Structure formats: C-alpha cells, structure tokens
Amino acid sequence: MNALDGIRILDLSRVLAGPWCTQTLADLGADVVKVERPPGPRHPGGDDTRGWGPPFLQGRDGQDTAEAAYYLGANRNKRSMTCDIAQPQGQALIRELVAHADVFVENYKVGDMARYGLDFDSLRAINPRLVYCSVTGFGQTGPYKDRAGYDFAIQAMGGLMSVTGERDDRPGGGPQKVGVAVSDLFTGLYATVAILAALRHAERTGEGQHVDMALLDTQVAMLANLGANYLVRGRQEGKVPGRAGNAHINIVPYQVFEVAPDEQGHSQHIILAVGNDGQFAKFCEVAGCPELAQDPRFALNQNRVRHREVLVPMLEQLLRQRRKADWLAALEAAKVPCGPINSLAEVFDDPQVQHRGMVHRWQHPLADEVDLVASPLKLSATPVRADLPPPTLGQHTGEVLSEWLSLSPQETQERLSSLRERRIV
Fold first, then answer.
1. N or C: which end of the chain has fewer CB within 10 A?
2. How far from each other are the two terminal CA atoms of the chain, in whole angstroms?
3. What is the DSSP letter of 239?
C-alpha cells in the first residue's frame, strides 16, 4: 500500500519543475499520467528533456536510445500517453479524462490553457473536486506574468546569484549559479506540498482549487536567513547581503578549508561547519589551540562573525598542517561537524549512501538495467513505490484510456485507431 493509492493525476508539465513535483507524487503512489506531444513532422514528440543529452540511455544493442538521462531522472513511476492538445479532438480527450482525475498539473505560459479550453475554470465545471496546479516563471498575476521563466534567469532575478560564488575581491569572484536547477527543484517540491494540502481540502469539502506556483516566488522564499537579514536590518542600514564564497554569513567558522596535500602532492580540502560555541571549543581542542576558545574575540559566535577577518586566517594556517583523513577522523570523534568534498563518483560509492538505498536499479523497456537516483522519502507504513521505470513516449496510451474511461479491449482498440488516424495520439 502507498500513501497516495487511488489518486489520479494528469500531468501536462514538461522539463523539470512540474515533472519533479509529479515524480514525488508518483513515488508516493499516485497514478501519474504524463501527457506528451505526439511525434510530428517537425518535432520528435514528447517532453523536450527526452532529447537533452548526451548522455542517453544505452540500449540493448549498445547504441544510444532517444531517452536522455535528464528525462530519466525526473519521470520515474509515471505512465506516458500522447495527446495533441493543439487540436480540438485532443482537447476533448483531455476533458474526458479530467472527469476521472483528482489533480491536473501544467506549466504552459499564462493564457495558453484558456485558449485550449483547459484552464482551471473550464475544467472545474467538469470536475468540481479537481486540484489544478499551474507552474510558471512568474505566476498567474503581476507585471511579469506573460514572460517565460527559466531556472537560470530566476536564480539571477531572485537574488540567489548575488549571494552565490566567491567574493568579488578574491580570484574567481563574481555571480555564480548553483550547480543544479534549484529554483525548478524547490518549486516542484513546494508544488507537491500545496497539492497535498489542496487534496486534503477537497477530501473534506468536495471543493477543488487552483494552485498558482511561480519560480520567482519560490526563489525569493528560498533566500531564507539572507532575506530575513536584509528585511530585519539590512534595508534600514543600507547593507545588502553579498557573496561570501563558501563561508556562512551568520556563522564562523563555517566554510571550506585547505588541508595538507595528499601523498601525490594534490591539494585537499574539507568543510568545517561549527554551529555553536561548544563545537568551537571542541574544534580548538582537536586543533591544539584551546586558548582560541577562551579569547573574548572568538568565544561567542557573534564575536567570531565580527572578527572573521582575524580568526579565519589563523584557522587556515592551522588546518594546512594535517591531512584530510587525519582531520576528519579527529573531528568526527570529537563530534565537530565536518566532511570531505566528494565527487559524484565518491558520493555513489559512499557506504552511507549505499546503505540508505539512494540508487535504484530499474528494468527498462529499452535496456536490461538502468541505475537512477532513488527517492529520499522513507515512510515506515507506506513506503514509496519503485515499480514503473521512466516511460517511453506514449507507452501507456491505450492502457490509460482503457482504465480511466472504462473501455473494453475492443472499445480501446477502436478508440486508439480513430485517434491515431487523426494524429491526436
């Protein structure tokens, strides 16, 4: 049994934010049907991310398939059907399916769904309980609502790049985006939370609602303590948070430090994440400098922050005296938060990552096996599912029509033949 067994979701979203949301809901047991564009003379069909490679999934013949790793990473546990919503017959098919859905997710530009007759008001008339989630760059209202939104641009506009990267006065300083599309990913997760809340409301009242998710809203919310720093004091004092490299604005020492080189002479680093004064005292004991924890400039975190420019160079000199393995073993034994900076190869070789089952091996229709990152959700009574590999384009069209519309095998075949003849699916 899964937590969302029986919940049906029509997913018209593409790329990352919307699919990330629906992948989480699918992991939790919802029947997520990914509705994709059928192939045509000028388009290969499907979610654009199917072609966002290399790398591509290698087929049984050793050749690349049409399934990019990017697509595979955001679409597990879903079924795929094709439907051309630009055609009236395709729009009619979606409305027919909506009558049997609990959730509808889309990430088209504002106004596109209304032109297709698939907007919230139109679909609510068919299914009053429907939870309708729109994911856009800037939301359904406001001066930017008609703009397309992309994660890179949102990281920039939403302030994240102004606080990410090395300080401007240091080599390599300047704006920097995060290595993965965090605005998309966070928006997908916030959308998941909102959909679950809306489902609860629909369960109690029979009333659906429109969930309006915007990447920019999410990015602003993600500013967290830095946003609060600016609003509480920075704005009135004219202090705008900026880039601090790998350091923390509010905590010291909390950054990357270089340690002694390895046996081959390669530079090595660790992160030190001292979160309170007790941990700082323990660090000082391990480092052989207990007097620093008694120094009034450094004993309290607020003073360490004020005297960062004095303390950090002292710590940099200390940390370069021992090798990475020595520091990690000693600091971990003293319960001082620290860690190595792992490559992705090291991440997936890590015994803790392996023990937690963060890689799942799938049997894929086009390949014998494919390893993908697993869901991090661990539920004791209703564990996440892992039964449907990321689908091929339109793999389940007939199956979905049969189940959702309660068609017999003959009716399903006749319906499919008619729709394919008119290039609707």
1. N
2. 32
3. -
CA distance 287 to 306: 22
Give the pLDDT confidence of 125-143 residue by residue, as tens digits. 999 999 999 999 999 999 9
pLDDT digits (tens, 9 = 90+) for 78-120: 999 999 999 999 999 999 999 999 999 999 999 999 999 999 9
Residues 420, 414: Cα–Cα separation, whole Å: 10
Find the Cα–Cα–Cα–Cα dihedral 74, 80, 86, 87, rounded to 10°.
180
**Contact, 32 vs 97, CB < 8 A?**
no
Whole-structure pTM value: 0.92
Task: Evaluate whether 145 touches 139 at the Cβ level (below 8 Å).
Answer: yes
387 is catalytic: no
Q: Which of 39, 114, 129 is nearest to 80 (CA)?
A: 39
pLDDT per residue over 262-317, tens digit each?
899 999 999 999 999 999 999 999 999 999 999 999 999 999 999 999 999 999 99
Q: Which of 184, 277, 295, 368 is catalytic?
A: 184
Looking only at the bridges linking them, the beta strands covering 268-273 and 254-259 are antiparallel
